[in-house]
Write a structure and sequence with these properties.
There is one protein chain. A hairpin with a 2-residue loop joins strand 1 and strand 2. The protein has 268 residues and is of the alpha+beta class. The longest helix is centred in the C-terminal third of the chain and has 33 residues. Helices cover 54% and strands 22% of the residues. The chain folds into two domains: 138 residues, no CATH class; 110 residues, no CATH class.
Length: 268
């Protein structure tokens, strides 16, 4: 997760902003965050101050629900639709206090943040910033963070898998056309030039779809994941299930089998 905290003072205004990355937000997480806004609305009402508060959820069907209380999470729409963006907003005009929270489902790294602003109450600013930071960082980290940092652990096996599969298919064709030469050629390549074989396979796999396949797999783990709503509309979650199934049932066994063949050839 990347963190960027800045403090500004201009015309007696102070603000702190937190950029959010790599988080999975459930309704429970969002209710905790919404509670910070609800508490400020309660205090403003008690002091008879004019304030504005809104809780908004945008959905993939271009519909929107907006409430003045966290009760929007009990709406039927939250259960049956696919959320793509969540916004919370509070502004007390009299005190100059403002809090905003914005997150959008997907890979976008910018625009996901919360911001706390006040005229001259630094304690209030720090207290509310700390509360929001605690609830945001308390949300489950997205696996995308780990996958991005260790991208090579995904891209290299994929490239080798594609490359070895392509070379094996060519080997079968070569065996069909020239059976004697193929066995002698591959036997020599496995036994004495295995690293050359793997390097060629890696290059073939990398430029033969490895990069695109890696990016496609990574897209199944959003930077910001709004994990609520109808399960059948969670496209990335369904794709992750298919990726795990294909990898477990098909890809890993094939790669292990080919790797075992190479190992046996080296031992000869």
């Amino acid at each position: 997760m990347a963190k960027n905290q800045a403090k500004e003072t201009k015309n007696m205004k102070q603000s702190q902003r937190y950029h959010i990355q790599g988080r999975v937000f459930t309704i429970v997480d969002l209710k905790r965050i919404a509670g910070v806004f609800a508490e400020q609305a309660r205090l403003a009402k008690q002091s008879d101050s004019y304030y504005r508060i809104s809780y908004t959820i945008y959905f993939s069907d271009n519909s929107t629900i907006e409430y003045e209380t966290p009760g929007l999470f009990e709406s039927d729409a939250v259960q049956i639709k696919r959320p793509i963006k969540v916004e919370f907003y509070f502004h007390n005009a009299k005190s100059g206090r403002l809090i905003s929270f914005d997150v959008a489902h997907g890979q976008e790294e910018y625009g996901n943040n919360f911001k706390v602003t006040t005229n001259n109450d630094e304690k209030w600013l720090n207290d509310n910033f700390t509360k929001l930071e605690k609830f945001v960082t308390g949300a489950k980290p997205s696996l995308l963070n780990w996958l991005t940092k260790h991208r090579y652990m995904l891209s290299i096996p994929l490239a080798l898998g594609i490359g070895i599969s392509v070379m094996s298919l060519f080997g079968l064709l070569f065996d069909f056309l020239w059976p004697t030469q193929q066995k002698e050629f591959l036997g020599d390549l496995y036994a004495y030039r295995v690293w050359l074989y793997l390097w060629i396979a890696f290059l073939i796999g990398t430029f033969g779809g490895g990069i695109s396949l890696t990016n496609w797999i990574l897209s199944a783990w959003p930077n910001i994941d709004l994990d609520f709503g109808a399960d059948h509309l969670k496209v990335e979650k369904k794709r992750r299930g298919k990726i795990v199934w294909v990898a477990t049932i098909i890809v890993i066994p094939i790669v292990l089998m080919i790797g075992l063949d190479i190992f046996k050839a080296i031992q000869k």
